[in-house]
Amino acid sequence: MRKRVNLLLSFVLYLFLICLTVFLFIYYIRYSWVLLLIVAIVTILTVIIIFLTNRLIDVKLSWIIVVVCLPVLGIFLYWVFGRPYRYRKKQKVHLNLFKYFYKQEDWNFTREVLNNENPKYSAEDLAIFNYTTRISFRPIYTNTDVRILVNGPENYYQIIADLKEAKKYIFMNYYIIGDGELLETILKVLEKKVKEGVKVYIIYDHVGSYFQLSHETIRRIKKMGINFQRFAPIKLPILTGSYNFRNHRKDVIIDGHIGYAGGINLSDTYIHLSGRGFWRDTQVRLVGDAVKSLELIFRQDWHFITGVILDVSFNTSSVKIKNDIIVQLVDDGPLTKEAVQKDLFIRYISMAKKRVWITTPYLFPTGDLITALRNSAYSGVDVRLCLPGIVEHYLLLDMGRTYYDALLEAGVKIYEYAHVVNHSKMGIFDDKFTIIGSTNLDYRSLYSDHQTLVSIYDEKTNEVLASKFSEDFKYSNLIKSNPLLQRNKFYHYVFLFLMRVLAPLF
């Protein structure tokens, strides 16, 4: 209740200030050409600054339209929410610590593969490994067991079993942690582990969990002896641009040798107990060497929040896995100079010769992603997108549909999942490459939020996920024409224009 009141009061305050500013502007503009000149100069300078920033042209154009079409208000919105490099101080610290975390990785297998000392891999495979290693600054690992977990109940049944076996430490990193039966079940296990001497560290995103995690629960968690930190806390009524950049990960690391990543948050919604229907989702469980990268990602996030480098020793040697599966962790966020995961998607789409199957709950892709999908389909590749047909907010569904025309025209097959909410983020490319993670195909995921993506090179894993895709296609409707066309043309074209302008800002 307190959170809702704070949010409401802050909203009313800012609405009042905006209305007052607009009123004064309109009132005095009739009497003062100086005021008009000042606003015009500030608008022009803001447009120039936007144009000179190193960012996607779609985002630049969207902000320029907002600033020009909404005098005063547009300028306010840009300077509060629209500026890049919002973590300038943090970015410098991040770069200074980069070498430290970089050296913590094990690069031996990567060097062996990239130096072509292992004849198993084709020149094309080596080119992909070389590319992903260079853009992500993460090594490739082998000797890692991979298990695909479908939907929340299967995922949390396994997580709880692994938590009960923890001996040294537990790291958990979630966009959403919500009060409910699932959280209480996990807290009972964690409380017992803390009493046994296991160190527990949890990160939760303040925006993602804002209305779902009560102050009372937070106090209770900290009383248990759990190290509990919120990511980028909101301090209303103060607004800063950093509030727009969130931690969207859903990662768990146990004793340095078991790890989880994917799209499943820690909430009753994801085990179908919240009354919000059935949620289709996917997580991957890793056991072995690749967990080292996942643990380093958590340690970097912990340092980002607290300024403290966690003093824990890696424990991967306690579990010996021997296999040929290649796993690479690819993390991304506003601290990186490049849109690493977007570039990875484009590279995988472009290299595929047989199939590109992707599922995402939100489709607001960049222009170059659309081009990559279209070019792949035009080349005869079986390109399929599995998207939600049911969402909590139908505006988001229609926003995604504004991209259907260009994709359908090129031969991309679009499926809308019926009867359940499809929240999975995964893809398969030909017969070997697989990706699972927290990343949606939208501007926010690809540019603004901290994300974790697991890239897997393995035929069996690819085959397992392909069978899951085939099941999803059976429960989905194949789209022949854009559903937006079934409404009146005015809605279709006006909505299309507005969404294309605003989508890069979400």
Automatic annotation (TrEMBL):
GO MF term set: cardiolipin synthase activity
CDD domains: PLDc_CLS_1, PLDc_CLS_2
Domain of life according to the entry: Bacteria
Domain PLD phosphodiesterase: 243-270, 418-445
GO BP term, pick one: cardiolipin biosynthetic process
Transmembrane segment boundaries: 7-27, 33-54, 61-81
SMART domains tied to this protein: PLDc
Keywords recorded for this protein, A-Z: Cell membrane, Lipid biosynthesis, Lipid metabolism, Membrane, Phospholipid biosynthesis, Phospholipid metabolism, Repeat, Transferase, Transmembrane, Transmembrane helix
Membrane among keywords: yes
InterPro entries for the chain: Cardiolipin_synthase (IPR022924), CLS_N (IPR027379), PLD-like_dom (IPR025202), PLipase_D/transphosphatidylase (IPR001736)
Its EC number(s): 2.7.8.-
NCBIfam families found in the cross-reference section: bac_cardiolipin (TIGR04265)
Name of the molecule in the record: Cardiolipin synthase
Organism listed in the record: Spiroplasma platyhelix PALS-1
